[in-house]
């Protein structure tokens, strides 16, 4: 075991967070679906090695913003994104950006676990193979094991790597999807309500995983569960009607938020 | 609070807490005022009533604690709601202590009954208790309105009570020095004065809690103090 105590690790991480450079910077981001405007000039920076939670009522634009971060909105017809989003120093909407490579750097985990209808091993090895990340079988075995280890799933599946991924329980499938996202060594992981289809125990395991992944990755999570945002994130951003209402330290957000709309929403009040 | 929760049962739970706090406040105030009246009038029956009323206050504090725990478990309150509930717990415990101080004063009525309370000291005690009870009454009114400014204003008034207490302390010492037969009564009265002074401190605590509940920030600066009794009588060069 690591000799550093749990709290020392936490402290080091928090220190790292407060010094954190902005991993991704969103400047004046607006999104239009045809005529309809879904996001209004959002300025939101994502800090490195930090879990940022996006909250807000349905239709507030939080998922839309999340999907801008790895250009998932490109797949939607009529969708137009304006403003600028950078990953480190790269403008991700620049014409020279390879979108496939971008999505390897900025991975995504969806609401419903969606493993490929293939074996557990193939679920993990698919990404590294198409991105040419392994030289040989031994190399690939190592990537698969490391990814499953990191996702906290190795112990549960190591004896059945060649069984179908769809045969796992919902919670295991979701952790498999996280392992799959990790396998291509992303820098940022986007999660769109990753626990909304899971029971409380599976949810707790995924949340524990998010907590651990923070040391190596930058995470942005959309969640409808206020308690989940409070539990897993260090920064919280509140969206309402396509606008970013408030972005703050999570501790501050859930004890004494600055904006009345945030207050009303998290306390479950009528505005 | 302008807006209401989507879940009306949640509002009911918060209202229950705030109603019970107000009831506790009313009773604590009554007990303390009765205790001082019993003391200056040597009224043992009234003192006995104060002592038995304390049970009601203790019971109310426990009920508020239970309800707050259940509400936290069921609603997972955040922001102003969370501060409201935690504040209720703190205020209930302050009020329970106020009741204890009233009860302790009432218990001493029997001890000083034989000699009675000298008129001059009685006036001093009454004046001290008037100050403390106004403080308590005002803070309970502020609790009803949740005004941070008024809470802060009350907090700065504790000084007056401290100064009055110090002067009473001095007076009691003088009586004891004049005639050793006064020592028993004066010692009891000294405790009574201390009890009353402590009521003012609890009122100040409550004012600070209200400030926190409303603003989410702790009131700034040290609370004003003018209690120099702890060094009184020390030999100075």
Automatic annotation (TrEMBL), chain A:
<comment type="similarity">
    <text>Belongs to the ABC transporter superfamily.</text>
</comment>
<dbReference type="InterPro" id="IPR027417">
    <property type="entry name" value="P-loop_NTPase"/>
</dbReference>
<dbReference type="InterPro" id="IPR003593">
    <property type="entry name" value="AAA+_ATPase"/>
</dbReference>
<dbReference type="InterPro" id="IPR003439">
    <property type="entry name" value="ABC_transporter-like_ATP-bd"/>
</dbReference>
<feature type="domain" description="ABC transporter">
    <location>
        <begin position="24"/>
        <end position="266"/>
    </location>
</feature>
<dbReference type="GO" id="GO:0016020">
    <property type="term" value="C:membrane"/>
</dbReference>
<keyword id="KW-0592">Phosphate transport</keyword>
<dbReference type="InterPro" id="IPR017871">
    <property type="entry name" value="ABC_transporter-like_CS"/>
</dbReference>
<keyword id="KW-0547">Nucleotide-binding</keyword>
<dbReference type="GO" id="GO:0005524">
    <property type="term" value="F:ATP binding"/>
</dbReference>
<dbReference type="GO" id="GO:0005315">
    <property type="term" value="F:phosphate transmembrane transporter activity"/>
</dbReference>
<dbReference type="GO" id="GO:0035435">
    <property type="term" value="P:phosphate ion transmembrane transport"/>
</dbReference>
<dbReference type="InterPro" id="IPR005670">
    <property type="entry name" value="PstB-like"/>
</dbReference>
<dbReference type="Pfam" id="PF00005">
    <property type="entry name" value="ABC_tran"/>
</dbReference>
<protein>
    <submittedName>
        <fullName>Phosphate ABC transporter, ATP-binding protein PstB</fullName>
    </submittedName>
</protein>
<keyword id="KW-0067">ATP-binding</keyword>
<dbReference type="GO" id="GO:0016887">
    <property type="term" value="F:ATP hydrolysis activity"/>
</dbReference>
<keyword id="KW-0813">Transport</keyword>
